[in-house]
Amino acid sequence: MASKLYDSTQLDLYRNRSKFKWVVLGISIVISIGSIYYTNILVEQIKSREEKLIALYANTLEYFANQENNADLNFIFDEIILSNKSIPVVMADELGNPLEYKNISAADHATTRKERNRILLKEIREMEEEHEPLLVTLRRDGSITGYQFIYYKNSMLLRQLTYYPLTQLFVIGIFGMIAFLVFNYSKAAEQNKVWVGLAKETAHQLGTPLSSLMAWVEYLKSDEKLKDMDMIVELEKDVERLNMITSRFSNIGSEPILESMNVYDLIEETLSYLKRRISTRVEFTLVCFPNRELEANINKSLFEWVIENLCKNAVDAMGGEGKIHIKVLKANEGHVLIDITDTGKGMTKAIMQKIFQPGYTTKKRGWGLGLTLVKRIIENYHKGKIFVKRSDVNRGTTFRISLRS
Questions:
Q1: Pfam families this protein is in (predicted)?
Q2: Is the N or C terminus of the chain more exposed, i.e. has fewer CB atoms within 10 Å?
């Protein structure tokens, strides 16, 4: 009862964390949209202000240029237009030849007049695409004597603000990715603690009855009439297996010791134990290519656990009747492949994507932890890979394990 309550508490915790993750995502999106919207308002306000400012410059220029007492138009340009410190501006004649400019650093660094004019003409073309030039009409005695044009483009501040929303999205995206990775890491770390704690507690609980069973086996073996009976021999094997299982659970969380071992022999030993403890209507076959001498870096007790689990799942999928074919292959780049094929009910693609997830099971009774532990043993402890190579509904499934040799 306590374990069910604990398991339920953990599930509620992860479910609440998942909801919290979506809440954080929603808040981030709202903040992003609000920030971008507010930035766009600022951009439009500054843009409008700059347009009005340039228009004011143009009107002022036109006014003073047409006053009879003002013969020095350049002085007016210096006092009004050039007082601007941020908006790039070029004043040109009616033929488009630059007369004066302001806030164009490239032109300031030009070494010759020809180079400066080339830079200013290029700026004028860019300014025309961004803003329509302002017309300054020159008059003398009520008659139009000529025209001048004021070209301009957005200030550096305005251009930076224009691209600022993209920068915001990038920063928020990076932050969201980091938060997601941290959340997943913390969730995985907490799950690992749960697994380790549960495993060690299981090993502790098994210790007492196992010690008692070992004592009873020794007592039965002391009887001359019973010690050579097959029942006692198999019972001793079961006790040894229980002792190994207890050792497995107690060592979870510790770094396992890997040794180079013969893969074929190890699987054959595991199958020999299983055959006498499952349905006799299940047929096992084991082959090895190119020979039986293939070795891989393996932790014996943990790897036997993997083979047992996959075979028992296969027996369940076949309803206790069918064939299990295991093939050991030498692969490239120092790897050994193990294919475990059954003739069971198979899986749909939707199920294949979930079978290694903690708590997922298609059985009426089960915690959905077997394949999760198998994946952890192969990938975390053996640095290998395990996946569903193929599965056809009502035809069977093939699991593939890849180990380093």
A1: HATPase_c (PF02518)
A2: N
- Least Cα distance to 248 among 291, 199, 289, 211 occurs for 199
Distance CA(397)–CA(386), nearest Å, equals: 13
| Dihedral angle over CA of 85, 88, 94, 95, nearest 10 | 130
Question: Closest Cα to residue 129, out of 151, 149, 107?
Answer: 151
DSSP letter for 152, please.
E
Tens digits of per-residue pLDDT, 308-361?
999 999 999 898 899 999 999 998 878 999 999 999 999 988 888 888 887 667
Q: The tokens of 216 are what?
A: 């009873």
Output 168-171 pairs: Cβ under 8 A, ≥24 positions apart.
168/32, 168/35, 168/36, 168/39, 169/32, 169/36
Question: Measured between alpha carbons, how far is 167 from 33 in angstroms, rounded to an integer?
Answer: 13
Q: What is the pTM of this model?
A: 0.51
Helix, coil or strand: residue 288: strand
Task: Say how many residues make up the chain.
Answer: 405
3-state secondary structure of 20: helix
Q: Could you tell me the two tokens for 117?
A: 């004019």
Distance from C-alpha of 193 to C-alpha of 253, rounded to nearest angstrom: 8
